[in-house]
């Protein structure tokens, strides 16, 4: 660390310097039939907190606070072996199956109609996946008919018979999951996937022209086939899709917190590469249409590993990858969301993976619920980042990292909503030891008020919440800085995330 105790930084904002409108779908989630995400997490009729439909009321309330704009479902690797018709109709007639992806028992007591009811409860748009592993393009089209067609034909009538006469109008659809991965059930080569996805997309759109489709991109930037997979799949499907997916799980495997806390550099480079791939394919196809990025699995995941020979050991709702999140993880999540704003011109969907128990902001026991450290930065961004992203100019001292060279101590983004005048400034101090005194300059107008300042901070990067001590890492209100002309100065502590609510 080359920083000193008297670190000074400046941030310049100008409401004319806009990157792009912020897509609300950047604040979306992902719930898979995996471990205890659906069963015992979202749906647990045996819990004292269950409502009449078996949904956990305490979990619903916590998810509502996160304000997910869309929810991706039902997987994940689970999707590639899932027969969606197993999960509809009378519950006592639904089959129990061996889920090969997670080596677990799937009871099918929660399926498409239960998911739609859940989405309504948490006020989120469903984002359905179709099985491109064992599933056929006909299965995919049938599911669109089940969800979106008016009554009068087989699958729409099945929906009505199951108590839902009106179509659900599902707008967002994923064409499979991580089909580039050899671990995926029914894994395909890029051209095979491209051909299948294109034909599925055509049939799905013929059922409903208004749907928006997400193509499978690379499972992560370390795949040997990255980014060639992306180019090939996009060339097959450019005219049929609206989004191209990216997945990434971050971790501090070497316990090198200086590098870990600079990971936004890696996130940005992943987006930049795929953004370049999108431009290349668009140019090659002489196309006028756009395809955007959907970062539909992202989170920290490295502590709760999964021995592939054990996985769920053929049990129901096994405890799988119940990652415990600490302060430094929360600061990585905050930087990730800074990247979403800084890349909002190309990134339009992002789904936090996952929502409950499985690498999740919320953990449950049958009786209790815990909000983990990462819950708080997500909640703050989801609430405050509205309008457009501003192109922020930051001058901050640098520190040394083994992975990324010299990196600035601060990672910053900002949003501005011209209609309401609401401006937010999001600041991560990556230093593990030093505070930074930051002067923010609003270059084109003086702020009228800084109404609130929220902070997630601590002295121990490994500190985490537990059921016994649930408030180790939470968001607290701190004194907002005073406005002096068109500037304001605040000191952000080491290992901190601060968000300012400003009225311009
Ligand atoms: O989110 C856990 C798993 O990670 C998902 O099922 C899969 O898509 C990814 O590899």
How are the SSEs ordered, and which strands pair?
Layout: E1 7-13, E2 18-21, E3 28-30, H1 57-66, E4 70-73, E5 97-99, E6 104-106, H2 112-121, E7 125-130, H3 137-148, H4 154-161, E8 172-175, H5 190-207, E9 212-215, H6 228-237, E10 243-250, H7 257-260, H8 264-284, E11 292-300, H9 327-342, E12 347-353, E13 362-364, E14 369-371, H10 375-384, E15 388-390, E16 393-395, E17 398-401, E18 405-408, E19 410-417, E20 422-429, E21 436-442, E22 449-457, E23 476-478, E24 483-484, E25 487-492, E26 496-503
Parallel strand pairs: 1-21, 3-4, 3-12, 4-7, 7-8, 8-9, 9-10, 10-11, 11-12
Antiparallel strand pairs: 1-16, 2-15, 5-6, 13-14, 15-19, 17-18, 19-20, 20-26, 21-25, 22-23, 22-26, 24-25
Helix pairs in contact: 3-4, 3-5, 5-6, 6-8, 9-10
The structure holds alpha-L-arabinofuranose (AHR).
Residues 32, 34, 75-77, 177-178, 297, 353-354 line the site of alpha-L-arabinofuranose.
Secondary structure category: alpha/beta
* Helix share bin: 10-25%
CATH architecture of the largest domain: Alpha-Beta Barrel
Uncertain segments of ≥5 residues (pLDDT<50)? none
| Ions, cofactors and other bound molecules | alpha-L-arabinofuranose
What's the domain count?
A: 2
- The CATH topology of the largest domain comes to TIM Barrel
Give me the side-by-side strand order of the main sheet.
Answer: 3-4-7-8-9-10-11-12
**Helix count from the secondary structure assignment:** 10
Measured on Cα atoms, how large is the radius of gyration? 23 Å
Strand percentage: 25-35%
Q: What best-fitting shape do the alpha-carbon axes yield? A: globular
Mean pLDDT over the full residue set: 97
Biggest sheet overview: 8 strands, parallel, barrel
Number of strands: 26
CATH level 1 name of the largest domain: Alpha Beta
